[in-house]
Amino acid sequence: MTERPSESGDVSDGRTEGPRLGVAAVVLAAGAGVRFAGERHKLLCEVGGVPLVRRAVDSALAADLDETIVVMGAVDLLEVLPEEVTVLHNEAWEQGQATSLAAAVGYAGSRGHRAVVFGCGDQPGVPAEAWAAVGSADCDLAVGDFGGARRPPVRIGAALWSHLPLTGDEGGRVLMRRRPELVRAIPCEGNPDDIDTLEDLRKWN
Question: Which residue, 29, 89, 118, 165, is most buried by CB atoms nearer than 10 A?
Fold first, then answer.
């Protein structure tokens, strides 16, 4: 895993230096998107004139959590990401989404954050209000509830980070299955559907 440096050589996050005991937003954007049969990676395709991943990142930023982290891997997204975010390069992305979440919580721990709220870079309809609502939940495990559908964003407190899988395509879902008594569903507005195929993309445009 590598991080995007600032001109001074430190991690560029657009905020003041030093650790903060806060909540970090994490946009997972490292996968190859193998079901998407387009000419370029799906995260670089536009929804409403904006790159898909940028829509997700802008919503996370607008939630005004303490730091916004983007984990990328299969494709370079730097050209479409705002300078305010911290970018982590997950070199183990082929081993599944869990590796990206593990990279994010490892970094968040080094910064002193007490929780992360993660969502996916291919969810263009999750608004900032959903990120903020889940982020402000006073618990270690919370998930967005979109009209009965439990979907990211998901908040995971630091006390649970060591219980996350290190490989595979599941992260927060593993915790929610193993510890259902800890899960708090947070009512959210918006559309949590993700974009996996060209047909999915056409529905948004």
Answer: 29
Q: What's the domain range around 176?
A: 17-204
**Number of structural domains found in the chain:** 1
What is the tens place of the pLDDT at every residue in 83-114?
A: 999 999 999 999 988 999 999 999 999 999 99
Question: What 3-state DSSP class applies to 116?
Answer: strand
Q: What is the distance of C-alpha 83 from the center of its chain?
A: 16
Specify the CATH number for the domain of residue 129. Answer: 3.90.550.10
Q: Using the structure block, give the residue that is written with the tokens 């991690």.
A: 11
Residues in the chain: 205
Sign of CA dihedral 170, 121, 5, 23: negative
| Backbone torsions φ then ψ of 112, nearest 5 degrees | 85, 15
Domain assignment present for residue 47? The answer is yes
Contact 54, 81 (CB under 8 A): yes
